[in-house]
Amino acid sequence: MILKELYNPHHKLVKLPLLVKSIYLLPAFVLVLCSSSLMFDGLVLAVFLVLTFFVCKLSVSHLFKLYRIPLMFILLGCLTIAISLESTRPFFKIYSISLGFDMSNVEVAKLVLLRSLAMVSVVFFGLLTHTISELAVAMRYCKIPTLFIELFILTYNFIFSLSHTAKSLHIAQKCRLAYSTQGNKLPAFGLLIYATFRKALYQSSQVEIALMARLGTGDFVFVSPEKSFAKRQLLSPILLSCLLLLLYLKIKQYE
Amino acid sequence: MSEGVIGFKGVSYLYPSGTLAIDGLDLVLPQGKKIALLGGNGAGKSTFLLMLIGILKPSSGYLNYHDTRYCYGKSQLRTLRSKIGFLFHDSDNQLIAPTVYEELSFGLYNLSKDKVWVRQRVEWALEAFGLQELRDKSPHDLSAGQKKRVCMAAVLSMEPDVVVCDEPASSLDPYHSSLIFNQLDKLNLHGKTIIISTHDVNQAYAWADYIIVLKQGKVLVSGSPQKVFHQTEVLKEADLQLPFIVELSHSLFPDLGCESLPKSLVELQTLLKPVLCTDL
Ligand SMILES: Nc1ncnc2c1ncn2[C@@H]1O[C@H](COP(=O)(O)OP(=O)(O)OP(=O)(O)O)[C@@H](O)[C@H]1O
Ligand SMILES: [Mg+2]
């Protein structure tokens, strides 16, 4: 949902066709997947943070908000890797359990942390520069079955309508003094959940009717404006990809 | 019968919850007219309109489109819906694409796989409904009136033979309301039949050629605006008020026949001129 709110329809790549945009993303993605160097991953992370910042015109606080959740999960995961129960240099010891960092594990954790963050930054950049229908087109290119694409779009719409409904129902409840005392909090919350699902279900049945009225057959094909690009617009993504590749090879050489 | 576009033959509709929303209608909607469906809340207008595009199937009786009986098979419904466009009362239910541009393209692409033609139609619709500035925005992030205009553009750009709109002017400002009615008028000039439901008697009186007044699923009266609004008692029964012009003319000229009721401000002025001159 945060992604949906932060998506800026006037980002700098909006006029570029899918193919050109993918030159920004795909090479970087593949390189991060293959890389095993901390430096390279850090570099990609930095590059894509800066790109997200400038291309999508997000403020730093928005960027932070966006990364908050994945960061939390990744940090938690890395901590679990880093901390070992049979550490040679424990900082905590009860009976036979010695809790502490293990140097080899810490190395792995660092690598995992940076690589995941680099990956997340590439994915976020992709999500913030592509609309849902472009993603659907990309999926179609990848020969993903129509059923999944349809499900993907409907789920997206359903989640959106769910959160929208919940928000407005919550406000309506508050206006009628729900949640004002300790006693009525829980019943009001229960009612909210019930009403939200009921309404969202009704709404999705209405959406289906509306789709039928416009001759919808189940596959969601939208036509987007014709996108043309000058050759020089290919320059920056290709340059970026070449640079990343070069760095990747160089770093690999030194290691 | 042949000049009618859609006919109702003894049609009733009972909601599964037990409300009889439409009660034994026998009616012919005249071809190429601007038709307004009037009635108070819960009169059955939306139900009536949903039956026109075959979303609700009558519990008894049947409908005709150009003398062919409605069939509710998949392909027949598709043919029917390519001829009858429908604008929902609640725009949120109609919006599904991530941008306004793609929203407009959805129905058009289902109609024809020719992308060049689709893009041309979309550009036309963006221009005609004043949506150029919103083209890249997400339809979910628009105001109620803007959403309505997007839905309207999406339906009208498909150029159906019959346009059915459930309260097209609700939540629109006066400027955009007249913009939409102008578009409806243009379509009508090309011979399309327009059917709207509304509570706005002034709008209905000034705009429509043919008026149907519903109450509890039954037609109380139908016919030309002058004929319908001449019947003050019936309108009261349907919880409707008189249009301002009619009320004024009635109070000034109590014995005015229904044929000579003025339909617009200009006609009212011509009616008033002799009176004003003798006063001077
Ligand atoms: N989904 C439904 N299930 C059961 N009853 C319904 C449903 N929708 C409408 N009704 C009932 O059918 C009757 C006609 O409703 P309808 O929506 O057609 O009225 P309307 O003329 O469009 O009213 P409004 O001007 O308020 O939009 C009402 O009594 C209503 O309570
Ligand atoms: Mg209604």
Summarize the structure in words.
The complex is a heterodimer of chains A (255) and B (280). Chain A has 255 residues and is mainly alpha-helical. Chain A is built from nine helices and three strands; from the N terminus they run ααααβββααααα. Chain A has two domains: 1-131 and 226-255, no CATH class; 145-223, no CATH class. Chain A has a three-stranded antiparallel sheet. Chain A starts with a helix and ends with a helix. Chain B folds into two domains: 4-242, P-loop containing nucleotide triphosphate hydrolases (Rossmann fold, 3-Layer(aba) Sandwich); 243-280, no CATH class. Helix content of chain B is 41%, strand content 22%. In chain B, a hairpin with a 5-residue loop joins strand 1 and strand 2 (20-30). The model of chain B has no long low-confidence stretch (mean pLDDT 89). The A-B interface holds A 4, 7, 9-10, 14, 131-133, 153, 157, 160-161, 164, 203, 206-207, 209-217, 220-226 and B 53, 55, 77-78, 81-82, 85-86, 88, 90, 92-94, 96-99, 101-103, 105-111, 115, 118-119, 122, 135-138, 140, 154-155, 158. The structure holds adenosine-5'-triphosphate and magnesium ion (MG). Adenosine-5'-triphosphate binds at residues 15, 17, 19, 21, 39, 41-47 of chain B.
Concise description?
By secondary structure, chain A is mainly α. Chain A has 9 helices and 3 strands, in the order H-H-H-H-E-E-E-H-H-H-H-H. Chain A is flat and about 60 Å long.
Tally of separate helices of chain B: 11
Distance between the termini of chain A: 41 Å
What is the radius of gyration of chain B?
A: 20 Å
- Which strand order do you get reading across the main beta sheet of chain A? 1-3-2
User: Strand content of the residues of chain B, in percent?
Assistant: 15-25%
Considering residues with a beta carbon less than 8 A from a beta carbon on another chain, report the largest interface and each chain's count.
Answer: A-B, 32 and 39 residues
CATH superfamily of the largest domain in chain B: P-loop containing nucleotide triphosphate hydrolases
Instruction: Using the coordinates above, name the CATH class of the largest domain in chain B.
Output: Alpha Beta
Strands in their spatial order, largest beta sheet of chain B: 6-7-8-3-9-10
